[in-house]
């Protein structure tokens, strides 16, 4: 397993221990792995992983909806885990 | 996640279902009349009230050292005095930035309710509230832009939540507003009284505290009434626990927003995100949060919502 998305997957697993695996197309919002109050934490983690500030107000929730969309929008679409 | 209750601050409610407040109450009306009269008699022109010097001294604290996110930890001791003062500058900009974003969110929610069915009683005071909050947002934004050159952006883009019971939504909206104001007020009181700080900084916090004392008195009574109406409408033990969890999460998230990696970065501290994580788990910081939140947790306990933070 490559490490690029690993911190994000680890963060999600830590907060949602009922999920052994997080499929790349699982809707993180719909399934409440990330809720409104946890979202700021999630954004700060993602900024740390990608190494830049994200213009949050210009983004859509859909860009964070699954691991696939996160990878596509913030990591250039290259699967690395 | 810990709660089944959703933050509805990002949702446009188009169904017209916000009307279930039913907050007619003689004592509440008398309080509102008093607060509205005081808001009128204490009114000031914020655009001419403040002295805005061209710059603030870079070699002084802009934020009380005891309020800094590193206070009470070894991380504060590891910073050189000049770096600690730099952190106080950026954490003051972060504090006022949080105010700008918090005020925008609360204005949207109050604006959606003023003069709608169910909110007839507080609508007169809502006008004072919205007017004053707009002015607070202006002076906080002015501080950030004039002395920090930026407003730290909000990271609060949240997932849209399904509409829920309007009684519960009303209660949660005004509970969030009250808790936000109580947290800010803790800082305002301390900063206004700190004679190490520049007079403009003290003035900003003193005036904000004066206005907010009215808003907090209003909010505490309104939240209590909305909670009583929610209970009367039927709220089982599971729902009560969910409300309690949600508010505990809200308070924790609010305190966490004081630990901004961007402020650490502007201070010259490397790996601010990791520092944030270490600080949030530090016992001295947890104890500091309890002190900041005491008025809020005492209030919630008093109206029957004990929290497990």
Model description:
The complex is a heterodimer of chains A (81) and B (309). With 81 residues, chain A is mainly α. Chain A has a single domain, classed as ACP-like (Non-ribosomal Peptide Synthetase Peptidyl Carrier Protein, Chain A, Orthogonal Bundle). Chain A is 37% helix and 0% strand. The N and C termini of chain A lie close together (5 Å). Chain B has a single domain (26-51, 66-302), classed as Orthogonal Bundle (Ribonucleotide Reductase, subunit A). Mean pLDDT of chain B is 91; it is low at 6-19. The interface between A and B is medium-sized, with 24 and 27 residues.
**Rg of chain A, nearest Å:** 12 Å
Biggest beta-sheet profile of chain A:
none
Number of helices of chain B: 11
Order of helices and strands of chain B: HHHHHHHHHHH
Structural class of chain B, please? mainly alpha
CATH topology of chain B: Ribonucleotide Reductase, subunit A
Please give the most extensive interface between any two protein chains, plus how many residues each contributes.
Answer: A-B, 24 and 27 residues
CATH class of chain B: Mainly Alpha
Net shape of chain B: globular
InterPro entries (chain A): ACP-like_sf (IPR036736), PP-bd_ACP (IPR009081)
Protein name (chain A): Acetyl xylan esterase
Domain Carrier (chain A): 1-78
Features:
heterodimer, A: 81 residues, mainly alpha, Non-ribosomal Peptide Synthetase Peptidyl Carrier Protein, Chain A, 3 helices, 0% strand, globular, B: 309 residues, Ribonucleotide Reductase, subunit A, 11 helices
Question: How do the strands and helices of this protein lay out in sequence?
Answer:
The complex is a heterodimer of chains A (81) and B (309).
Chain A: H1 6-15, H2 39-50, H3 67-74
Chain B: H1 26-41, H2 46-49, H3 74-77, H4 81-113, H5 120-148, H6 166-193, H7 199-232, H8 237-256, H9 261-267, H10 272-280, H11 283-302
Helix pairs in contact in B: 1-5, 1-7, 4-5, 4-6, 4-9, 5-7, 6-7, 6-8, 6-11, 9-10
